[in-house]
Write a structure and sequence with these properties.
This protein has about 230 residues and is mainly alpha-helical. It has one domain. The chain contains nine helices and no strands. The longest helix is centred in the middle third of the chain and has 31 residues. It is flat and about 55 Å long. The two termini are about 35 Å apart.
Length: about 230
């Protein structure tokens, strides 16, 4: 996977993750553009850097799968924590500990599953389907979370947006993309990333800036730091 194609995947993941947050704003279109560009500013180059290290080892694949598998449990826990905890520092510490435990468990499950798949011949039917099953299970969490965010008020918590964004990014790197898609994406990756980021920066200097920051402070954070 080329750096440019990974850059495109990061941009698409950021764009998808920004949809539920934008739907919470009075003007979803401009808000989505600002949030998508802000997230893509960091996520695109990050995925590009990871892609340079491909083919990914089983350890990296397990880490990415673990992020996908832990997406929904973390989001549900974050929502319950927000409702039941009014002490912000205590809530932050509790979530951090729970996130470490849940992610570690998901990573252990993914590692064990990949080890079982690797025990067969790499090209065997069992190995191929085991890896596909793991990717599908990891994909289910972010998809269900996206549906939940789009249809309920639970998405008001910024942790949901970050979790969704990271889950989609991890699954994008886990996927095996057709050669034609990779070639086309490699050509479009850098221009698309530049267009999205530059357009969102322009929009962020207008009245949409406050609405975007209010809709999702977590996704807006890269711009919030740069535009202070």
């Amino acid at each position: 996977m080329s750096f440019a194609f990974a850059l495109l995947l990061g941009t698409l993941a950021a764009a998808l993750a920004a949809v539920p947050a934008a739907l919470r704003a009075p003007e979803p279109g401009p808000t989505w553009l600002v949030l998508a560009g802000a997230a893509a500013l960091v996520l695109g180059p990050a995925l590009g850097g990871i892609a340079r290290g491909r083919p990914l080892s089983d350890g990296v694949c397990a880490a990415l799968a673990g992020l996908g598998l832990s997406t929904l449990p973390l989001a549900v826990f974050a929502n319950r924590l927000q409702i039941s905890t009014h002490h912000r520092p205590l809530g932050a510490v509790t979530f951090a500990i729970a996130a470490l435990v849940m992610t570690a468990l998901a990573l252990a499950v993914a590692l064990r599953w990949l080890d079982w798949a690797r025990s067969a011949n790499a090209a065997s039917r069992r190995s191929v389907w085991a890896r596909r099953a793991l990717a599908s299970a990891a994909l289910a969490g972010p998809l269900l979370l996206a549906l939940m965010l789009a249809t309920t008020a639970a998405g008001r918590h910024g942790l949901f947006d970050v979790t969704l964004c990271l889950g989609l990014a991890a699954l994008a790197l886990l996927g095996r993309w057709p050669a034609a898609v990779v070639r086309l994406g490699s050509k479009a990756g850098i221009p698309v990333w530049l267009i999205v980021v530059c357009a969102s920066l322009v929009a962020a200097f207008g009245p949409t800036r406050a609405a975007a920051e209010d809709a999702s402070p977590a996704l807006y954070a890269p711009f919030g730091w740069a535009l202070r």
